[in-house]
Amino acid sequence: MTPATYHPTHGRTLPPPDQVITTETKNILLRNFYQRAEEKMRPKRAAPESLIPEHSCKQPRPSTSN
Questions:
Q1: What is the pTM of this model?
Q2: What is the rounded CA–CA span in Å between residue 3 and residue 27?
Q3: Which residues form the DET1- and DDB1-associated protein domain (predicted)?
């Protein structure tokens, strides 16, 4: 299948001879949709073994009951 190429209808501004302008086979919206779907399917980081941090900044309040 030969890709569709641009052919100017005037001679005022001809593109460089090595430049090829083609259309994409896949719509940009579909490409974006598939890229986002692939990102969602990637494996995520494994959870740490202990979910409680060892050096917590929060400290329990001392009890004030007498």
A1: 0.33
A2: 15
A3: 1-39
